[in-house]
Amino acid sequence: MTKPEVVFRLESVTKEFGGFRGLLGLNRSAGVRALDDVNLELRRGEVLGLVGESGSGKTTLGRILVGSERATSGQVWFEGTHAEALRGRALRNFRKSVQMVFQNPFTSLNPRRTVRDVLHSGFAARGLPPGAARAAAMAELLPKVGLSEAMLDRYPHEFSGGQRQRIVLARALTVEPSVLVADEPVSALDVSIQAQILNLFLSLRRDLKLSIVMITHDLRVANFLSDRIAVLYRGRLVEIGTREQIMEHSRHPYTRMLLSAAPTGDPDAPHHRPWLAGDATPAGPMSGGCVFHDRCWLRKIVKDPDRCATVQPPLTGLEEEHMAACHFAEQTPAAAEVSLVPGEASA
Questions:
Q1: What is the pLDDT of residues 202-245, one digit of tens each?
Q2: CA torsion sign, 59 to 64 to 67 to 69?
Q3: Whole-model pTM?
Q4: CA–CA separation, 273 and 330 (whole Å)
Q5: Which domain holds residue 279?
């Protein structure tokens, strides 16, 4: 089988905030590194989950994809073209092709504009003339996101959180994008509404042939939606694979920690995955070594080797589609073979 076409390709992308570069590039002061040497692909028609704790760099990566942030170094390619080289019509087409859905639907909409006004702006950006053509496009779009024409002249404050997120999705779809970058799109919603919005994403992906980047801290969301899952920790890509590989056969100790922390829905179910060992607060900026070594439970099992703290592990292939950045990924015990509590390790 041939692999699907690559829509986005990130090559060695690094992003720093707050750095300072002196005259002629001298006396440079490093800032906070939000992303560090990230290599990643988004394929045509897939849902790629980006998973990690707050501060892992997920949102920064999403903003780089849509062009609202520029990488400090590295390259971003969109459909074979360097994204930062886009100008004029090509740049306008890119901005229509790649749309972002933000976390909070309560702040994503202008409270002074009706739903009709919001959608008209999107159709105008697409170049659709006002009148019958725009009305027909609006009537066709609304049912796709679970809205009705009776809602067009209402204001955002008249809607629930789930309905507002549907309006945000409708606004994004008015310009006929090929890629949606969704930044925690259900985290601000009630649990009862989350499943409806996630199912809506799946139906839009199927009906409109969308590629979706789903940014989330919740592995249950990634498991429900994603074809592949990429795990970020402190700006570095530490594991990537298919949904099944990450959820059932993860090899990086940080991914295992996230899985063990995810609620199962059964309060009596025993945990057979390793819990966090040590301090849950990440240390300061790393000078070298594995970014996870100061929190790593696996490091205890393999007798605390020095290279975890001194040598940065590369992202290494384990099997087709599956890669992990860990010196001991091949030695990671199966989930059932490990039982750890904070501060305790056993082989």
A1: 999 999 999 999 999 998 899 999 999 999 999 999 999 999 99
A2: positive
A3: 0.88
A4: 17
A5: 250-347
The CA distances from residue 99 to 133, 183, 243, in Å, are 23, 11, 24
**Is pLDDT of 332 > 80?**
no
Residue 186's closest CA among 221, 147, 144? Answer: 221
Asked whether residue 335 is assigned to any structural domain, the reply reads: yes
Q: Is residue 23 part of a domain?
A: no
Q: For residue 300, what are its two tokens?
A: 């205890």
- CA distances (Å), 35 to each of 16, 43, 70, 145, 264, in order? 7, 21, 11, 33, 31
Angle at 132 between CA 130 and CA 135, to 5 degrees: 80
Q: What is the pLDDT of residues 10-62, one digit of tens each?
A: 999 999 998 666 556 555 556 789 999 999 999 999 999 999 999 999 999 99
Domain count within the chain: 1
CA 303 to each of CA 217, 314, 328, 334: distance values in angstroms, whole numbers, following the listed order: 30, 21, 11, 18
Matching residue, tokens 């100061």: 294
Nearest to 66 by CA among 102, 109, 39, 37: 102
Q: Which amino acid is at 199?
A: N
Amino acid identity, position 323: M
Interacting residues of 254 by C-beta distance below 8 A, sequence separation 6+ = 231, 233, 238, 239, 292, 295, 296
Identify whether 215 is part of a domain: no
In a domain, 16, yes or no: no
